[in-house]
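For reference, the entry.
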Amino acid sequence: NSREENQTIKNGVIAEECKSPKNESKLKQKDTEARWTKKVGKTHFGYKDHAKVDNESKIITSFTVTSAEVHDSQEILGLIDEKDEVLYADSAYVGEKLHEEMKLKNPNLNRESMRRATSRDR
């Protein structure tokens, strides 16, 4: 990709030249829905999985997939439901407004904080 093509993709726009039938194969090679994000100082391009996992069985009970720039806290409300009793969450899920919205969705939900695993814990 040229710099101009990269910029249009970052902006969520498909270049006009890619829309023509003559360049159909070029469009198939461009992921126009993936986005950039930074995490722990590293840049990533693509998508992010948001998963709800049962604490006892470790089975994924619900999930969503978004472009990489979507913050975890933006997806949590779609994952919790009235059956959930405890939410183990890290620092990504802080904020009075978010906690109020969680309580509206499930008044009985208890939020427990988790410390991030360090490399020596793995």
Notes: The chain has a mean pLDDT of 82. Helices lie at 3-10, 16-19, 24-28, 76-79, 96-105. The first strand starts at residue 35 and ends at 39.
